[in-house]
Design a protein that fits this description.
This protein is α/β, with parallel strands linked by helices and 659 residues long. It contains 24 helices and 22 strands.
């Protein structure tokens, strides 16, 4: 399926805008009648790209709104307040919603096309064959629709705000019991994790491909773990009026403190164990913090109910005392355990003894998302086992680094970040995962990262369409909102080329590409039939007719700004223009109605020498030379240098600038 035409109907932003995307047909609707005209434009792109359309226009004409409406309407009640026309293998489908549209018999016969006039009730028939993916780098709610699978056609939302709030879905771990909370650290880490997965199977021409991923703990984790646990213990001792030296020397007293303090005592014991390797210490402490968070009372975690103690003036019930004893048993086993199975079965046994084995962990407020705590603990321990195995395997004690092959990198990063959310964030944990190539670290620039992430998400979208779409002939509409953001002009020069080159590997899917942009560089890669020029008259938005469109292909940037991007007199920036006008007015002794923007006392000779445009510089220099000629003429007339200097000083005083 291919989208050929859209007409908006009394849209609050777009009005009744019509857009044609076909290279061989032009549709128009006037007075409820559809007309079709044959045209002979050609696409300049190979399969699988059925079409690529660039939408340009000033801010406020509705470019982003067009992409949003296309994405939303594909899987909503199609044609409700717009008309869409699609082409399949042997049929053109006209989706009209409640709009009364006439299609003449002559029209049907002339083009030998079967038209299907479908209403909103038939939306799944009309446009349900097309999947769509929306991409932008702006952190806004430009499109809020959830990613979903609608009758075999997929919609995928790759806006930063959607990814930020749906991290588990983004890294394909939506079925995990422990869901990832939204945070900047998690967002950045999972963006890197998706890159790692992408580089396992893909390369981008001209870009380095990493062979390893480096996770760095160094000594900071152990130092901060010691400081964190020591502070908690000392604060506890102070609140109980217990001398810390008495505490360390009295093991019986140590065993009587509450489980929370006891686990921090165990952390210090681990840190002081000279026989454990650094990585084993790091991982064991992680395990302590993870289990503590899961079983200790902390809002939604119920294992020991300290609220009951507070309500009873500090008196512990028999149940609470039993809970504390069982918790201490868990922490003692944690300290000496050699495997997570032992820990799991111990916690399960404790929960049975305390009659809380069926306690529900509330992942969200929705009842369907409630899970059993013991099942969550099992999942977390399985993740921990995987982490421990690879941490021991790839840890270098000399550097403190874990250098993982890319094949192991994705699961390690995802599992680690998932579990890290159960650990107090006051402890410094690695959130930066570096790339290695042949043993040396390297980094991508922000612009390169932008392009890589674009291709990572693009590949992810296509793989999901391949997996989830039920349609035999798969079609995908790619919606890119200003993809050139944060890219250097040199990288913009390559964007269309790299994008089409990248898409050429997916020959099993028919692809349509829609882009919005403010970059004339992108427009210079496209013939005018690939470009939609939008403009406003009063509050109405229009698209240029074919015979009005400027030639964009291989056009110079200045002409594109002027003719294609609606920038009038776009030779230089506005501030520079004001400066030039000021110089010209002062040097030619014109009236002083110009705006004075230069600071008083500015050496205008310096400013003139800095002018980069040769034509402007020659003109201003001509005025400056004429001023010097006036001085020479005064000298030839026998006027003294002192008098000439007085005249120049007077001019300087009047203008406020150094001539």
């Amino acid at each position: 399926m291919e989208l050929l035409y859209i007409k908006f109907l009394d849209d609050t932003i777009l009005g009744n805008l019509e857009l044609n995307f076909s290279h061989d047909l032009r549709f128009s609707i006037t007075d409820n009648k559809l007309s079709v005209e044959m045209v002979s434009y050609k696409s300049i792109f190979k399969n699988p790209i059925a079409n690529l359309s660039l939408i340009i226009g000033k801010n406020g004409v509705g470019k982003s709104t067009i992409l949003r409406r296309i994405g939303e309407e594909l899987h909503n009640e199609g044609g409700k307040d717009l008309i869409q026309i699609f082409r399949g293998e042997e049929v053109i489908r006209v989706c009209v919603g409640s709009y009364k549209l006439e299609i003449s018999k002559e029209l049907r016969k002339k083009f030998k096309i079967e038209f299907e006039t479908l209403t909103a009730r038939d939306a799944d028939i009309c446009n349900g064959d097309i999947s769509a993916a929306y991409f932008t780098e702006t952190m806004d709610n430009s499109i809020t629709m959830n990613s979903h699978n609608y009758m075999g056609s997929v919609f995928l939302n790759y806006t930063p705000s959607y990814i930020f709030n749906n991290l588990s879905e983004y890294i394909n771990r939506k079925e995990d019991k422990l869901q990832i909370p939204a945070s900047v650290k998690n967002y950045k880490s999972f963006i890197r994790a998706k890159q790692i997965m992408f580089f396992n199977d893909n390369i981008i021409k001209g870009y380095k491909k990493p062979d390893h991923i480096r996770v760095s703990f160094m000594g900071e984790f152990l130092d901060n773990a010691f400081t964190y646990s020591e502070k908690i213990i000392l604060d506890y001792l102070k609140s109980k009026n217990i001398d810390k030296n008495e505490m360390w020397n009295n093991k019986e007293l140590m065993s009587l403190v509450d489980p929370y303090i006891n686990q921090h005592l165990n952390v210090l014991t681990i840190l002081g164990n000279g026989e454990m390797s650094a990585i084993d210490k790091i991982m064991k402490i992680h395990l302590f913090y993870i289990i503590d968070t899961l079983i200790r009372v902390q809002n939604k975690y119920v294992f020991i109910n300290y609220d009951d103690i507070n309500q009873n003036n500090g008196t512990k019930s028999e149940t609470t005392e039993l809970q504390e004893l069982e918790s201490l048993r868990i922490y003692r086993v944690l300290l000496n355990s050699i495997g997570t199975d032992e820990i799991y079965y111990l916690i399960k046994d404790v929960m049975i003894n305390l009659n809380c084995v069926n306690y529900l962990y509330h992942n969200t407020d929705e009842e369907k998302d409630q899970i059993y705590l013991i099942d969550l603990i099992r999942e977390c321990l399985e993740k921990y086992d995987r982490l421990l195995f690879n941490a021991r395997k790839y840890y270098d004690p000399k550097t403190g680094h874990i250098d993982l092959p890319l094949t192991e990198g994705f699961d390690f990063v995802v599992d680690y970040i998932t579990l890290r959310n159960l650990i107090n964030q006051n402890i410094i944990l690695p959130s930066n995962f570096s790339y290695l190539l042949n043993g040396s670290e390297f980094y991508f620039s922000s612009g390169q990262e932008r392009l890589i992430n674009l291709f990572v998400n693009l590949n992810d979208a296509i793989e999901k369409v391949r997996e989830l779409s039920n349609n035999e002939d798969k079609s995908l509409l790619l919606l890119f909102d200003e993809p050139e953001i944060s890219m250097h002009p040199e990288m913009q020069l390559e964007l269309i080329s790299k994008l089409t080159e990248f898409l050429s590997r997916y020959n099993d899917i028919k692809i349509q590409v829609f882009l919005t942009s403010h970059s004339p560089i992108l427009a210079s890669d496209l013939t005018s039939n690939h470009v939609q020029f939008l403009y406003k008259v009063d509050e109405d938005v229009y698209s240029m007719n074919d015979n009005e469109k400027p030639k964009t292909f291989a056009q110079n940037i200045y002409s594109l700004y002027k003719d294609s991007f609606f920038v009038e007199d776009a030779v230089i920036g506005k501030y520079a223009d004001k400066v030039i006008m000021q110089l010209a007015s002062e040097l030619s002794n014109k009236d002083d109605s110009y705006e004075r923007v230069l600071p008083s006392g500015t050496d205008i000779n310096f400013v003139i020498d800095e002018i980069g445009e040769p034509v402007i510089k020659k003109y201003i220099n001509g005025l400056r030379v004429r001023e010097k000629r006036v001085q020479n003429i005064l000298k030839e007339q026998g006027i003294s240098d002192n008098l000439i200097q007085q005249v120049l000083e007077e001019l300087k005083t009047q203008s406020g600038y150094n001539l």
